[in-house]
């Protein structure tokens, strides 16, 4: 377990980085309402963030080659956390846009440095799988994190009652589908489901 601890930590850092970059995509409507701007403007938070990431990642990796990697990785995650906290405390679109651009210019350091760090730590025959494991953090952020951001943003924006109602309807639909398959007739399945609901 100790052997894989550094890989797990680096991978979890990529989860945080991925969610910091892609988080607004999961809550566009709620952000637009809260910031009182259009969805297009809110989408620009993701677009500008991706642009900064594409340009900043190789440049920042080159500029920070002489800095201790552990300190650099920790500082990068701390700056991402501080940027997220500052973004949560303001309701001005321009300020949030500037915060995101600055935060992601620094956040662009994390993924390439994490991959380079795990390549130094892992033995030669384990390097490819170790690097792939660190990049798994992005997949987790996209496949698991974005739906959680979407759900929580919806709930925090006042949609809790609607979310519960939607979950109840989805649950009934699933039970009805199972009952249909088991009984073979939609009418009997509807009676069973309505009786249980």
Q: How does this structure look, described?
A:
- The structure is a single chain.
- By secondary structure, the protein is mainly alpha-helical.
- The chain folds into two domains: 2-159, MFS general substrate transporter like domains (Growth Hormone, Chain: A), CATH 1.20.1250; 161-196.
- The chain contains eight helices and no strands.
- α1 packs antiparallel against α6.
- The radius of gyration is 22 Å and the shape is globular.
- 24% of the residues are buried.
One letter per element, helices H and strands E, the order comes to HHHHHHHH
At CATH level 2, the architecture of the largest domain is Up-down Bundle
Question: Biggest β-sheet: count, sense, barrel?
Answer: none
State the CATH topology of the largest domain: Growth Hormone, Chain: A
Domain count:
2
- Tell me the distance between the termini: 46 Å
Text of the CATH class of the largest domain? Mainly Alpha
Q: Beta-sheet strand percentage?
A: under 5%
Beta strand count: 0
* CA radius of gyration: 22 Å
Percent of residues in helices comes to over 70%
Poorly predicted regions: none
Computed structural class: mainly alpha
Descriptors:
197 residues, mainly alpha, Growth Hormone, Chain: A, 2 domains, 8 helices, 86% helix
Please summarize what this structure is.
This protein has helices at residues 2-22, 28-35, 39-63, 69-88, 93-107, 110-121, 127-183, 186-196. By secondary structure, it is mainly α. The chain has two domains: 2-159, Growth Hormone, Chain: A (Up-down Bundle); 161-196.
């Amino acid at each position: 377990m100790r052997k894989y601890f550094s890989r797990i930590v680096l991978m979890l850092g990529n989860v945080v980085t991925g969610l910091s970059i892609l988080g607004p995509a999961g809550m566009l409507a709620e952000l637009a309402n809260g910031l009182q701007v259009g969805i297009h403007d809110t989408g620009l938070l993701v677009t500008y963030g991706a642009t900064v990431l594409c340009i900043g990642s190789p440049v920042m990796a080159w500029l920070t080659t002489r800095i201790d990697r552990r300190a650099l990785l920790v500082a990068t995650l701390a700056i991402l956390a501080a940027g997220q906290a500052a973004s949560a405390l303001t309701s001005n679109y321009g300020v949030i846009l500037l915060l995101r651009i600055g935060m992601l210019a620094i956040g662009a350091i994390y993924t390439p440095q994490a991959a380079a760090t795990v390549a130094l730590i892992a033995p030669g025959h384990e390097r490819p799988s170790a690097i792939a494991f660190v990049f798994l953090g992005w997949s987790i952020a996209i496949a698991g994190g974005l739906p959680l951001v979407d759900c929580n943003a919806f709930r925090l924006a006042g949609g809790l009652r609607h979310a519960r109602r939607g979950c109840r309807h989805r649950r009934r639909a699933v039970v009805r589908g199972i009952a249909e398959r088991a009984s073979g007739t939609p009418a009997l399945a509807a009676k069973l489901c309505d009786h249980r609901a």
